[in-house]
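User: For my dataset I need records formatted as: sequence, then structure tokens, nothing else. Please produce one.
Assistant:
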Amino acid sequence: MGKTMYLVAGSLAIAGWIGSSFPATGAEIVTDSLRNGYRACTGRMLNSGVSPEAAARACAGALYPKDVARCVTRIEGQTEISAQDALATCTQARRPVELSRCVVGISENSQGQPVPGVLDFCGRSLLPIRYAECVVGLRREINELAPTQAMETCISAGDRPLDFAPNFIPQGQLQQPVPSPALTNPAIPEQTAPAPDAPASDTPTPTTP
């Protein structure tokens, strides 16, 4: 009996080793479980109220579909913005998850009141989280600053001045502008014409006898 069990166990081990030596089939590589990002994206979109056609286009065209779906569902769930309105901005954003945090952060700072243009402003920013911190920080210290005014101020803060004061060149060592060369041709010295030869006289020279 013990010998029989040993032979059966050995046969199963050999069969498992042989099976593991073959490459995985296509069904094992491509999964249809929730680990499939496209399935997860589509399901979240549909649960948020996005139409099937729009959900299919958004998820199929995304490099990271789960991030796009997370962007839409977070904005729809924590602000007054609908999922359909958030969809276009989330699909165009370079950082959709950070975009959603930007929109939610600014909206929560406004005591839940709708903030017109918050999707557009957060979508235009290259660093959405830092942009939201700028807007929230200004409004925390300046109570009379409206959300739209704060968003416009922070979005224009990306332009950095070219001339800094003070500069780092010691006083008295500023470079003087180098004069540009004259565009006209250099003056050519005037040449004086040679004096003409004296004309020959018609009167014959007298000869001595």
